[in-house]
Design goal:
67% helix, 130 residues
């Protein structure tokens, strides 16, 4: 571990950090930060906690995006199934909106187009409110 190799957490930071750290207020330059083992441990803990929170936020964003994509695809699939039952549910339904692409790729393209349309309408709405 760190203690076996360096003797203390502060010694580890002293050797491996741009910020020099030591237990004594001795031969280090005035610009060097004096840090105890406890302060070094707090720094490690706060850095890890920040990393963990940022990761949780990123995971939450990815989860929401995945859920939205799944919901759009399920809706696409249901509309396609209903249209296939000779019901005139979507008279303008042209199944080959994206020729040359697989069904999944075409669904992704449609989702992206819908989102870009949403963004544009939102921007236009914000401009008219100003």
């Amino acid at each position: 571990g760190i203690n076996a190799e360096y003797g203390s957490i502060a010694a580890y930071f002293n050797k491996n950090s741009k910020t020099k750290v030591s237990k004594e207020n001795g031969s280090h330059p005035a610009s060097a930060k004096i840090m105890t083992d406890e302060e070094a441990a707090v720094r490690i803990q706060s850095t890890y906690k920040g990393f963990k929170v940022r990761k949780e936020i990123q995971d939450e964003k990815e989860s929401k995006a995945a859920t939205r994509i799944q919901a759009n695809f399920r809706g696409h699939k249901t509309r396609k199934e209903l249209a296939g039952k000779d019901q005139d549910v979507f008279p303008d339904n042209d199944d080959d909106d994206c020729p040359g692409y697989s069904e999944e790729e075409a669904a992704a393209i449609k989702i992206q187009a819908n989102f870009r349309g949403h963004q544009t309408r939102k921007q236009l709405s914000e401009k008219t409110q100003q």
